[in-house]
Write a structure and sequence with these properties.
It is built from one helix and no strands. It has about 90 residues and is mostly helical.
């Protein structure tokens, strides 16, 4: 073969081509994995932001529920006193 005059046999050429293909594949795979990692990191940051917003909303709504609950207790006691006045009014 023509490779033999350069001191390289056919098998060596095949092995070199296979080796170069493996290197190229590893390089492409690494780039794809790095791109995927970057994408997942971005998604994680967005999720953290959403979680922080939800936690803030939860705190605000918890305070609001406590306020409404206190108002409900006040209105209930006023309603109870008013009802008792009307009941005892007839005795």
């Amino acid at each position: 073969m023509c490779h033999s005059r350069f001191g390289i046999g056919v098998m060596e050429v095949c092995f070199m081509k296979i080796y170069l293909f493996i290197l190229w594949y590893m390089f492409v795979s690494r780039r794809k994995m790095q791109a995927r990692i970057s994408e997942l990191e971005s998604t994680a940051e967005q999720a953290k932001g959403k979680a922080a917003k939800l936690e803030k909303d939860k705190s605000r709504l918890t305070i609001e529920i406590k306020d409404v609950s206190m108002q409900l207790d006040e209105v209930s006691s006023i309603a109870m006193r008013t009802a008792m006045r009307h009941v005892f009014k007839y005795f």
